[in-house]
Amino acid sequence: MREIFKQEIEQLGLDLASMAEQMSTAIGKAVTALEQADLALAEQVIDADEKIDAIQHNIDEQAVSLLARQQPVATDLRVVITALRMSSTLERMGDLARHVADVARGRYPETAARGAGHDVLMRMGRQAVNVGDQVVRLVNTQDLDLAASIESEDSVLDQLHEESFQVVLDETVELPRQEIVDVVLLGRYLERFGDHGVSIARRISFLVTGDLTNAVATETNGTDVQ
User: Where in this chain does the record put each PhoU domain (predicted)?
Assistant: First the structure.
């Protein structure tokens, strides 16, 4: 019985790693689609979102089943609870990648923004792709130094998000209404993507250390709210 339980716990970890990989691929493709007005790539991201949702559903079913059947305690309980929380956060990151792809598809054959707006969005996009890559490594390694790095680097996306507001509020440049909407929406999507990366980092820290401080901060600050 214990061996079966161990295998089920390991499967949770494998499914989370697969989910993180697919999320990272999605944000990478979405940002490229946004930059290059690539319709086919945008549609790939949109279609693939269902696979991420399906993995989340499977993880949640596994976790609830383990809680009901095995009544895990201590480290095992942390693993199951963390899997439930992280699957939800990874699914939201996948949704945000899909939102970016939706905008890219909606503006085809043009890009969503031009000039300074396009520049700041691309810088945000590249940073979001970096966050996605880091989350994949973190889920696989549970490296606390990497978790701390993800959290500290979130200020990069926050600062770029502020720059996006400066672009749309610049009175010396008259932007089309649709472009203003795109910059505001995409800036929000990419900034939230980074916030969810921080949530994953805090969940991993809790899993490894058992320290609730950061996990509680995640709930209190609304990091898990899309």
Answer: 17-102, 121-204
| CB environment 72-90: b (16+ within 10 A), e (fewer) | beeeeebbbbbbbbbbbbb
pLDDT digits (tens, 9 = 90+) for 141-180: 999 999 999 999 999 999 999 999 999 998 887 888 999 9
Domains of the chain with CATH codes: 2-220 (1.20.58.220)
DSSP letter for each residue of the chain = -HHHHHHHHHHHHHHHHHHHHHHHHHHHHHHHHHHHT-HHHHHHHHHHHHHHHHHHHHHHHHHHHHHHHH---HHHHHHHHHHHHHHHHHHHHHHHHHHHHHHHHHHTTS-S--HHHHHHHHHHHHHHHHHHHHHHHHHHH--HHHHHHHHHTHHHHHHHHHHHHHHHH-TTS---HHHHHHHHHHHHHHHHHHHHHHHHHHHHHHHHH---HHHHHHHHTTTT--
* 92-121 tens-digit pLDDT: 999 999 999 999 999 999 999 888 999 999
What is the torsional sign of CA 149, 164, 27, 52?
positive
